[in-house]
Design a protein that fits this description.
44% strand, alpha+beta, two-stranded antiparallel sheet, five-stranded antiparallel β-sheet, 7 strands, 18% helix, globular
């Protein structure tokens, strides 16, 4: 299990080995080459969106010039609020543009 600091959530976000395997299999353009960018995205996102598909999911996005000649890394995080506050990554992917969901926060 890997844990990433996430100031936006005032805590840590977990990445289980099962979810890491899922991401590597479904999004081989992201992992393993750009694993470090997951942490950067959670620690300092350009944008945070509420998922349009899942009420308890947030999409953290950050642009990287170094990812495939310029792309966003998007990390999808879900969380429990009660009784223990816990957050974990369900998936992550690379995207040329951001769409869907409602913008909750954006870097100015």
């Amino acid at each position: 299990m890997v844990r990433y600091a996430c100031p936006y959530l005032n805590g840590e976000v977990e990445l289980s080995e099962e979810r890491r395997t899922h991401i590597a299999e479904r999004h081989p353009d992201l992992l393993p080459e750009f694993a470090e960018e997951l942490g950067f995205t959670l620690n300092d996102p350009d944008q945070v969106r509420r998922s349009g598909r899942f009420a308890n999911a947030l999409l953290f996005a950050r642009w990287f010039d170094s990812v495939l000649t310029g792309k966003y890394v998007v990390v999808v995080v879900v969380g429990d609020r009660d009784p223990v506050r816990r957050h974990w990554i369900v998936t992550a992917y690379i995207s040329r543009r951001l769409s869907g969901g409602e913008i909750e926060w954006m870097r100015t």
